[in-house]
Prior knowledge:
about 35% helix, binds phosphoenolpyruvate
Amino acid sequence: MILPKTPQLTSTQIAEITAIVSEFGCSIQPIVGTVRTIYAIVGDEREELMINRLEGLDYVDRIDRIQSPFKLMDRRSDLANHHVKVGGVTLGRELLVIAGQCTIDPKNPAYFLETAHAVKEAGAQALRGGVWKPRTNPYTFQGDNKSLDILMDASRRTGLPAVTEVMEPEHIQLALDAGVQVLQVGARNALNYSLLRQIGKAIAGRDTVVLLKRSIHMGPLNEFISAGEYIAAFGNPNVVLCPRGTTPTMDGYRNHPDESITPLLKEKTWAPVVVDPSHSVGKAIYVPACALAAVAYGADGLVIEAHVSPNHGIGDDPKQALTPAVLAGLITQAHAIHSLRQT
Ligand code: PEP
Ligand code: MN
């Protein structure tokens, strides 16, 4: 919809606009109001270049888009009935809980195996474990390829599908070859379109799932969903959106909790939403409330950092990880809220 700055366009302006939109297979239809006339774009208005050229005209106030910019991720797209599965869980039908350590310590693999069994016992249906880590400080532990074997060993022993973050093109193939079912794209890479495209290409035709975190700055929801479109565009629609808190931070929390965007995302996209309360609030004591709020807001799942002995963990685990006992209590409550919402 074209909204001009003046009550109506002159015939020269209409001719100029018509020439632009017809290059993109569209036409315009005036909608005459009592005080002003606006102009509907008839045809596919998703062409960015057409919109940019119209927005560049000095007599155009703004363009309001009626059509969604997403071809695949839109709630009304052909994929609206697509269900993403992680292990035995169909998202949207059953609450998915992914849990495990922020970071696998290659020097102490026994902790990870113990954590894996403990999160399964607590009710988690998938196992997270950081192999390669995006660290703010370049001098801290950056991850280790050896941890991939530790992750897959624990995944096999527990029967829980493995979830890990990939940051570089070579991680993608290593993780897929090892049998990782869910590739995480972290908040720092959520807008790395080159990585998103490479993941999309690598997982086309596979049952691999992508857990796409929301970018670290308070990005618009359309930007978040568009990042998912980059992956789905290559043919694998198993995209899960993961709000994980944004900046600027809320005093006392690690980030600004954003589980409340869940219903807004669901109005725009069919993609399941799995919230990460651990990075959102950043301290173990605040995690359960944030997790339960996420389920109350309609989240399809949670991804939670947990460790059998947080003090012995590395990365975020000493401050953020839940103990298995707290995780178990939280999972029970989360299921209760989820069932309340279903009824
Ligand atoms: C993580 O999951 O450990 C992590 C680094 O996540 P994020 O990208 O959300 O910071
Ligand atoms: Mn972490």
